[in-house]
Each structure stands twice: as structure tokens, then as C-alpha cells.
Amino acid sequence: MLGTVVNTLAVVVGSSIGLLLKKGIPQKITDAVMNGLALCVIFMGISGALEGSKTLAMIVSMALGAVVGTLLDLDGRLNKLGDTVESKLAPGGQGKIATGFVTASLLYCVGALAIVGSLQSGLTGDSSMLYTKSMLDFISSIVLCASLGVGVLLSAVSILLYQGVITLLAQALAPVLTDMVIAEMTCVGSLLIIGMGLNMLGVTRIKIMNYVPAIFIVIGLCYIM
Questions:
Q1: Residue 44, Cβ neighbours under 10 Å: how many?
Q2: Distance between alpha carbon 201 and the CA centroid of its chain, in Å?
């Protein structure tokens, strides 16, 4: 678990630095950085989406994920939670906590590095991959938090839970999360990252959280199909 703990702390520290920097950055600079980040996010999404090879599994998982997420109203529930937290921490924040939380959580948890690094840490005790990821997340969290606010800081909870569970259950998950499955999970998750980037640019208003179940549905579809 050490690698996951270090990764979590890296995001907490990086986000804290970003919050401090945000106070001295003019709004027009923040908006410009936000648009630049959105373009980078879209690029990352496209790169990750190309890792998949099972197009049918991707399509079906996205469709089923949308149905499940919409029925459960995951986006609505998350925004209500974000509004509650925002009313306590940053009144008048215009819903940016939920946006920052979802954006950062997907960026930090969707990639193959999070899954493979956590499996490696749990199976062999080698957390070197997670240490590398920690440095990358530390740098990105500074920039993200300066633009999106405290929601990015809260995404540290997602990292702790997601990577922590994979690490603790590594022995059981290793046979299931094969290279092929990880590639398809990354592909589906990267499609959501593309949508997230388009949202950041104001091009679309996709309820990304409603599609998150697709990332896990594709695991079963890889074996069924």
C-alpha cells in the first residue's frame, strides 16, 4: 500500500500548492491555462483510446454503462455531493468542485499505470511504477487545481480507494486483469477523458460520470465476446 499512499499524498500536496497559486493568478490567465489543459486532456484521451482493439466490446460497454449510470443518476448524485461540499468550503463556487473531482479522478485512475502499478505493488511489493505515477500526478495536480479548484484535491480519495483496492486484492485480480483487459479498460476510460476535455472547452455538456460504469462493464465483455 505504500505506493498508493505516496501517490495520494503527492496529489494532496500538489493540489495544495495549486490552490495557493490560484489566489494570485488573474482569471484570464486561469481561463487560458484551462483551455490548454483541455487540449492536453483530449490528446491523452485519444492516445489511450488507441490502445484498445475490441471495438464491439467498447461500443456495447459504453451503451450499457450509459444505461446503468443514467438509471443510477451518478452524475446527479455526484453533483449534489459536490454542491454540499462546496456550500461548506467555497460558497458561490458555481459547481466547480464536482467538475474538478471527476476530471482529476478519471485522469489519475483510468490509465494503465494505475492498474498495472497497483497490481505490481500488491503482487511483488515493488511500488516503483506508482512512485513514477506519483511524480506525474504531483505536477499535474498543481496545474489542475490552480484551474479547477479544490475538487482536484478531493480526487486523492479516489486514488486511495481505487489503487488501494487493486493492491490489496492483487492476488485475486491478477488473473482477471490481463494485459488485454487493461488495454480495453484504458480505451473505454480514455473515451470518457476525450468527452471530459470537450466539456472543459465548452464544446459539449456530456454527463461523464454516467458513463463511468462502462470502464468496469468492459471487463466482463472482454471474456464474453
A1: 18
A2: 18
Q: What are phi and psi of 204, to 5 degrees?
A: -130, 170
Whose CA is closest to 65, among 195, 171, 162, 179?
195
The tens digit of pLDDT for each residue in 147-192 reads 888 888 988 998 999 999 999 988 888 888 888 898 898 899 889 8
For residue 178, the 8-state DSSP code is -
Residue 221: count other Cβ atoms within 10 Å of its Cβ: 20
Reported as a single tens digit per residue, the pLDDT across 50-105 is 888 888 999 999 999 999 999 999 888 877 777 777 676 655 555 577 788 888 88
103, 141 in Cβ contact below 8 A? no
Grid coordinates in use for 44?
A: 491523452
pTM for this entry = 0.79
> Looking at the chain, which runs of residues are DSSP E strands?
none
- CA 209 – CA 207 distance, rounded (Å): 6
DSSP code of 160? H
**CA neighbor of 174 nearest in space, from 124, 109, 111, 224:** 124
> Is the distance from CB of 3 to CB of 122 less than 8 angstroms?
no
